[in-house]
Amino acid sequence: MKIALAGNPNSGKTTLFNAITGKIEHVGNWAGVTVEKKEGDVKQSLNPRNEDLIVVDLPGAYSMSPYTSEESITKDFVQNENPDVILNIVDSTNLSRSLFFTTQLLELGIPVVVALNKSDLTDKKGNTIDIPALSDALKCPVIQTVSTKSANNGLLELLNAVITVGKANKKQISPSIGVKKASTKEEFEKADKKRYAFVNNVVTEVERRKVSSEKQTMQDRADRIVAHKWLGIPIFAVIIWLVFSISQSWVGPLFADIFVGWIDKVYEGVASLLGENINPVVGALLLDGIIGGVGAVIGFLPLIMVLFFCLALLEDSGYMARVAIVFDRFFKKVGLSGRSIIPMIVGTGCGIPGVMATRTIKNERQRRTTAMLTPFMPCGAKLPIIALFAGVFFNDNSWVGTSMYFLGIIVIIISALIIRKITGDYSRSYFIMELPEYRWPSLKRASISVLMRAKAFIIKAGTIILVCNAVVQILQTFDWQLQVVAETAPETSILASIASPLAILFIPLGFGLWQFAAAAVTGFIAKENVVGTLAVCFSITNFIDVEELALVGGSAEVSAIFGISAVAALAYLVFNLFTPPCFAAIGAMRSEMESPKWLWGAVGFQLSMGYVLAFLVYQIGTLITTGTLGAGFIGGLIAVAIIVASVVYFMRKGSKSTQISAEMQSVKV
């Protein structure tokens, strides 16, 4: 039996899907979290008769007349895939809005069961819904559910109703709304008016609200502060600073020290097992390349887990949806849709689902622009780089991570304005978003979310990063004659000879060393490789315990080991954050952009942006700290001037095309 889960965004649909199937799909407080259908079998505890049940979680939709691509997925599946039952998730706290979609589903002739979700919130508000009267009005079963609870949640009763309706295999008898099949715009509008009238009559009959929706609630008063057009930004800045302080300065390092201690014991244990008689090359490959390189990346896992735990709590509380509202007005002014904010927030976890979430944007230019700019938000793979440089060079200062997030937002806004000028597209967009209610975040859901991210991080470290570090170690160990390189002459290695020509390009950025060039290149495979490659190149297995390394922020010891200043380290951090993402994210960009021209333009733009920003950070920072310009200033200035001139040329070309199009349109008129 094929069961289609359909409902409005933020109705608890994916949470219900997880509760029914036992899966752990991402749950968010905004539209576009589910961007494609997901399938799962009903878990045994809810299926005691062992029926063959497949549940399909469809993207949220407000109507069967699709406006966005995810609504199209829902419409096409319901109409073309012939589900046996439609399980319609209705938000009981917002009955009047949810039932419009229900009326459209009832007209399809497919059996419908309504899950009246979030019933606990309805009871908490003192509101009541007459379930038998609602079921009678809709002519379908209506079951109260609380998908966030593990007991007394109504799910067993819901599945029994679904099985009963599905096995009856009777055509759905829709309520008498008076809607006829429409073929023109006017007929569609008349049909929608009849549906709204029907819904209003039903809600009036079955719902009793204790508090009038016209009165201002505590939630409304909180939004006046948190989502205020001016106060919202400093509040967001303080919250992000607190998140980084907790994860990288207060709680995170406590767990990291314990975790790194375990890694060091593994390193020492393997070293003792190998003994002194093992081949030095094999020993270096196993200890420095695999255990040391991977261990250096894994060492940052506790910091990342604490940070993601804090972000998961913020998202579950409903706050992150307010962040989208705060930044909406800035994004609209530079030609992006308000929906562009959502992929960027999703991208803070991983750039790949962030880029994929852009398919919810209908305007083609805005969708492609958002896919191009989403990787500028620091994702989970970039957090080890931030943590490394913040810890080693800046004594775990929380401002480093916080400033990178805000720099990402500023870069996105400026870049969007540039791309709008280049494309000449000045179409306006409108963004309507339902704000979820504030609630106490679930520690269980946050913990599950963090564990899933940790699992993905460890799998990545044990596959892609492990192989990459092993290759880096081999290339660093041998020269082109396949002779082992002497410890005093690492510059003769294969890796150094490949990376050295690239390092010349980085001299104006402050990190013109082959080790940093090699790490930047391997970062395109996976951004975590930057940390792993640096660990292999500098033979460092522990970046966490800075006291053991005798590294103090800004001290001579740092420059002696890494060969660069703190300002150059900040420039290197900026370069890695704002150049193209990993290959997997670029593949996602290719899929969503559907244009080779846009893809290569995006990669070129990202490379240029990272180079220019790193040049400005290093040269201006060096001028401020030393009173002189950094090395390679003239060469870097020429390169930056060429980049800027190219951008200005394309911007003027785009403006000219827009002017010609406007003149031609005026002639036609």
UniProtKB/TrEMBL annotation:
Keyword flag Ion transport: yes
Presence of the UniProt keyword Kinase in the record = no
Query: Superkingdom of the source?
Result: Bacteria
Q: Which residues cross the membrane?
A: 230-251, 290-314, 371-393, 399-419, 457-475, 495-517, 529-546, 558-578, 598-618, 630-651
The residues that hold GTP are 7-14, 32-36, 57-60, 117-120, 146-148
Question: Its Gene Ontology molecular function terms?
Answer: ferrous iron transmembrane transporter activity; GTP binding; metal ion binding
Matching entries from SUPFAM superfamilies are given as: P-loop containing nucleoside triphosphate hydrolases (SSF52540)
The FeoB-type G domain extends over: 1-168
> By its UniProt entry, which Gene3D superfamilies does this protein fall under?
P-loop containing nucleotide triphosphate hydrolases (3.40.50.300)
Where is this protein found?
Cell inner membrane; Cell membrane
**What does this protein's UniProt record list under function?**
Probable transporter of a GTP-driven Fe(2+) uptake system.
Protein's UniProt name: Ferrous iron transport protein B
Q: Which organism is it from?
A: Desulfosporosinus lacus DSM 15449
Q: What is the lineage of its organism?
A: Bacteria, Bacillati, Bacillota, Clostridia, Eubacteriales
